[in-house]
TrEMBL record:
InterPro entries noted in UniProt: P-loop_NTPase
The name this protein goes by in its record: Intraflagellar transport protein 22 homolog
Provenance organism: Bicyclus anynana (Squinting bush brown butterfly)
Pfam families noted in UniProt: Roc
Gene symbol of the encoding locus: LOC112045336
Amino acid sequence: MHLNKLKILIIGPSESGKTTISNFLSESTSIEEISVARPTQGVRIVEFELSHLNVNDKQVKVDIEMWDCSGDHKFESCWPSLRLGVQGVILVCSPNTINVAAREMELLYNYFVSQAKLSAKQCVVFYNCEDDQDTLDSLSLSPTFSKVSQVAVNLKTGGNRLKIDFSNYVTSILQTIKSM
């Protein structure tokens, strides 16, 4: 079984590591090539394929269209276009964005998940940790996120884990879409 394209937004506060995660998942860069952060201007679309997903006991291949969105609010006027046709949302925050994360994540969730009428299964929070001292416990999100999967991401030590978590997330989206 092959679906055309799955549109997934990756969004969160500025400097939370969205582009690094996008590049890693799409295999545009390896962990060793991760360099200094450069702010994304508006949006950057990365396309790649995931195969060998098990969805309802069927092997599935899916094309991912990942929209790596700037965390800068000067691009907020583009949000309606970004949200159009979205099937999944990855919210990213990190220890260096923790002070603005709770409010910002709530705003982004409301706009890109709730108003787009996506289910909690079509959303995931990636907490982009630099070291193993950072845990999900330090991420204090509102009860809005109680049904949303929250995953600690450490690309330096857990890149393979991230790929597995991402595949599971995509499978969850596909199962949700199929049951609608």
